[in-house]
Design goal:
Mean pLDDT of chain A: 75
Low-confidence stretches of chain B: 103-123
Order of helices and strands of chain A: HHHHEEEEEEEEEEHHHHHEEEEEEEEEE
Number of strands of chain A: 20
Largest sheet of chain B: 5 strands, antiparallel
Strand content of chain B: 15-25%
Low-confidence stretches of chain A: 25-36, 76-82, 84-124, 128-147
Radius of gyration of chain B: 23 Å
Largest sheet of chain A: 12 strands, mixed
Distance between the termini of chain B: 21 Å
Structural class of chain B: alpha+beta
Helix content of chain A: 10-25%
Oligomer: heterodimer
Shape of chain A: elongated
Radius of gyration of chain A: 24 Å
Strand content of chain A: 25-35%
Largest interface: A-B, 56 and 50 residues
Order of helices and strands of chain B: EEEHHHHHHHEEEHEEEEE
Number of strands of chain B: 11
Number of helices of chain A: 9
Chain lengths: ~525, ~300
């Protein structure tokens, strides 16, 4: 890695920006950055993301640039604050440092249950392309006992409830018990119309205080709900106090409902194939560009539905501003020696831009045709005349699996749900460095892995973080799938990829439906 | 390389600054920032430390001293006589008041747009303490940023003459020498950018080349560097290799472009007469030129020396 080259490149971009048309004196908040300032911010964020530039140097350069712009404002130009007021710094980024994997591995040694990962030949993973054959599993965990939560059980049971005129169902997708505590992944749905005269409880609220939970030893538990904004009627139910590690079942019932027994012996769960790990051998720069391409491929949900359907038909596309500065980012990564000039990834990124009708990206490499299968699948989806015309019907699938460690991050899949017109994969992640949520071009950079799903019909679905909460070193993430998953999907293959390795696992789906 | 100080081709300069209820003269002379109306500034500093009010001139001298090796001076300061920086003393006062009202106005931490608040998660005492420590650290960082900006605004308000002299002093502090060795790796990016930003504008005047087509590398060791023009059209490039000392000894002294020549080094320093090594066109050996300075501000800002062959 050439840190001197990286810093020099960023400073030269700042010099060039200062010579150009004068940007506004105050940097706008991240979402509003555009044009020349966006170019500088994107390069800075990309270089910090790959650790070619430290946060302090980045801040120093951007602060200097901001002040240089401010003191060159003609007196008649509008300035929103006093001279010399510092603008907000663009977000700092975090990629896991080379040492992070080792830290994660040490932490993983304390875990008791997990599946050993075995190396296998690479498949057509995202960004990796036709890669090398089987090898060691460089990004993966140290072996048995290190790759999963303490206890992870797919459930797939419905618990009906009634509370002061409000009735509904709670669907238990998975049970997970880690050092942070025991919890169910749940979704719920109230039935009937909401009438505030009959019920003081809003149907969006799960009446957790009405549930009774007991274990096979007679222990009783309270439930605490941690919900999410999107999707609204889904979340985690934590058990309080923390149950013993070896309880074999829990009985759950609402005040006026039947008792539902939840078996917690993982041996009772449907057999799941072992995860298969393979090398990816991406450089940090290539990994960043892969995430950038996936960001483009998953941007559709941010647009109104009508516009989303026209994404492929609009030229120049609405993504134009999003791509400004990609060429500079690639040049910066090359200057930092984290991206080889011979890498095929810039050409693939150019091909994604072409497929999404994104112009103005400034990528010098011509588009290539050797795109990974998942990218091609998603591009084909966008290029259909009406890609999202089939309504997504609500449903919940019990799915649970622990994946081997990738780049210091260990994932456990905790459930899949279709609701509010979209599909979400609920994931437990350990080893994340949530310093900042946004990377260059809006990459959700605190989550440095790409997760793809191939459905039983052979179509690929990209994922993007759509919300998370954390506690005790763990993060529960909701990954939104693009496009949504059909409820007729019988099984999925999950492909999670990091800097140096990727893992695949095939999982059967047991769907439950709101009545 | 001559052993004379980098500022040997620069005359003194002075300006008026607000101090107490009036205005006082401050002067730059032979590499020193001087306060002619505060003959015993040291004593004034002692009094200020005991609770007395610190004079505006003294505060300026302190700010100057804090930044004589601060590379951000090069990032913020002027790239040339035509690069107008407009900071008035009223701006400085306004910025200082904004800072004293509660940190640096406009500084916000990055928002996290979609992160939902975690419900029902208690905050343990250790986490609260950690948060408090982070807040304290953030406050200290904010104060450091505010102080630095206020310093910088004050120094810029001194005008172009002082701005280029401070830039020269900073560059000289980091330039190294064949005897002392090349600039440290940690400062090379800032020096390369600083030279590029200034030379690009000089080259535009010299050759009519697009400033974005100028690439600079640091010349190491003995010799005066070189300039080479390659390619055509959009691929045209002016590759220039210069020692880091060029910034102080040539550019800060106003010698960079003298009578249509790119000056690459000073052979014999002096004011108002000097001998320089200069290129009429790229790709040839530099020639010695005897140059003479005129300080009438006719072709640029006040206190910007103008040299002629």
């Amino acid at each position: 890695m050439n840190r001197e080259g990286a810093e020099t490149y960023l400073r030269l971009v700042a010099e060039a920006e200062l010579r150009g048309p004068m940007p506004p004196a105050r940097l706008q908040p991240w979402a509003g950055l555009s044009g020349l300032t966006a170019r500088l911010a994107s390069v800075a964020q990309a270089l910090t993301a790959v650790h070619a530039l430290d946060d302090e140097t980045e801040a120093d350069i951007l602060a200097g640039f901001d002040l240089a712009v401010t003191v060159r404002q003609p007196p008649d130009r509008a300035v929103s604050g006093p001279l010399g007021a510092a603008g907000p710094r663009p977000a700092r980024l975090m990629f896991p440092s080379p040492g992070l994997g080792a830290r994660g591995s040490r932490a993983g040694a304390a875990l008791s249950v997990g599946r050993p990962a075995r190396p296998a030949p690479s498949g057509p993973g995202p960004g990796a392309g036709p890669g090398p054959g089987a090898g060691p599993r460089p990004g993966a965990g140290p072996g048995p006992g290190a790759c999963g939560p303490d206890r992870l059980v797919p459930i797939g049971l419905t618990v009906p409830y009634r509370d002061e005129g409000l009735s509904g169902e709670m669907f238990l997708m998975a049970f997970v018990h880690t050092a942070a505590g025991a919890r169910f992944t749940v979704a719920w749905r109230a039935s009937g119309a909401y009438d505030p005269q009959l019920s003081p409880v809003h149907p969006g609220i799960l009446p957790v205080q009405r549930f009774t939970v007991t274990d096979n030893r007679g222990g009783r538990y309270h439930l605490d709900l941690t919900g999410s904004r999107v999707p609204e009627w889904a979340g985690d139910l934590s058990l309080r106090p923390d149950p013993p590690d070896d309880i074999s079942w829990l009985d759950i019932s609402a005040s006026e409902g039947p008792v539902v027994r939840v078996e917690l012996d993982p041996g009772n769960a449907e057999a799941v194939a072992e995860p298969v790990v393979s090398e990816t051998k991406l450089s940090p720069g290539e990994h960043l560009l892969v995430m950038l391409a996936e960001r483009l491929l998953t941007v559709a949900p941010e647009f109104p539905h009508d516009l989303r359907m026209q994404l492929a038909a609009i030229s120049p596309g609405p993504l134009h501003t999003m791509a400004t500065g990609m060429g500079d980012v690639i040049a910066a990564l090359e200057a930092a020696d984290v991206l080889s000039p011979l890498s095929p990834i810039p050409g693939r990124l150019a091909a994604v831009c072409a497929g999404m009708r994104v112009s103005g990206h400034g990528i010098a490499a011509p588009p290539t045709h050797d795109l990974p299968e998942p990218w091609l699948s998603l591009l084909a989806h966008y290029q259909r005349r009406k890609p999202d015309t089939t309504p997504v019907r609500d449903g919940y699938a019990a799915v649970a699996a622990a994946l081997p460690e990738l780049d210091g991050v260990r994932l456990a899949l905790l459930g899949l749900l279709n609701t509010e017109g979209g599909s979400w994969l609920q994931v437990l992640a350990r080893g994340l460095v949530p310093e900042s949520p946004m990377g260059p071009f809006g990459i959700d950079h605190y989550f440095p892995l790409s997760v793809w799903i191939r459905d039983s019909g052979g179509r690929w679905h990209a994922s993007r973080p759509a919300g998370w909460h954390r506690g005790s070193g763990e993060h529960v993430l909701k990954l939104q799938l693009v496009p949504p998953l059909s409820r007729s999907t019988a099984w999925i293959e999950v492909l999670a990829a990091g800097l140096s390795a990727q893992v695949r696992i095939r999982l059967p789906l047991r769907w439950g439906y709101p009545s | 390389m001559p052993n004379d100080p980098w500022y040997s081709c620069l005359p003194s300069c002075e300006t008026l600054v607000p101090c107490a209820q009036g205005r006082h003269v401050v002067r730059w002379e032979a590499g020193q920032f001087r306060l002619p109306e505060h003959p015993d500034a040291e004593a004034e500093l002692v009094l200020a430390a005991l609770g007395g009010e610190k004079a505006g001139c003294v505060q300026l001298a302190e700010a100057w001293g804090r930044h004589t090796s601060d590379l951000s001076v090069l990032a913020v300061g002027p790239r040339g006589p035509a690069d107008e920086i407009s900071v008035s003393w009223a701006d400085v006062e306004e910025a200082a008041q904004a800072g004293s009202r509660g940190g640096v106005a406009g500084f916000r931490t990055h928002s996290r747009p979609w992160r939902p608040p975690a419900r029902q998660l208690a905050v343990p005492p250790a986490a609260a303490a950690s948060h408090s420590a982070r807040q304290r650290q953030a406050d200290e960082e904010m104060e450091r940023v505010r102080q630095r900006r206020n310093d910088m605004l004050s120094l810029l308000a001194l005008g172009y003459g002082f701005q280029i002299r401070l830039a020269g002093q900073v560059a000289a502090a980091h330039a190294g020498s064949p005897e002392a060795g090349a600039p440290e790796a940690s400062v090379r990016p800032a020096l390369v950018a600083a030279i590029t930003g200034r030379l690009a504008l000089v080259a535009e005047q010299w050759l009519g080349i697009d400033p974005d087509q100028v690439a600079v590398s640091l010349h190491r060791g003995h010799g005066r560097g070189q300039a080479e023009l390659t390619g055509h059209g959009a691929q045209r490039r002016l590759q220039v290799s210069l020692p880091a000392s060029w910034l102080a000894r040539v550019w800060a002294c106003g010698l960079a472009l003298t009578s249509g020549h790119l000056v690459v080094a000073v052979d014999r320093a002096g004011w108002p007469d000097a001998r320089v090594l200069a290129l009429r066109v790229p790709g040839i050996e530099p020639v010695r030129l005897d140059v003479h300075a005129r300080e009438d501000g006719r072709d640029g800002p006040a206190d910007a020396p103008h040299w002629e062959v």
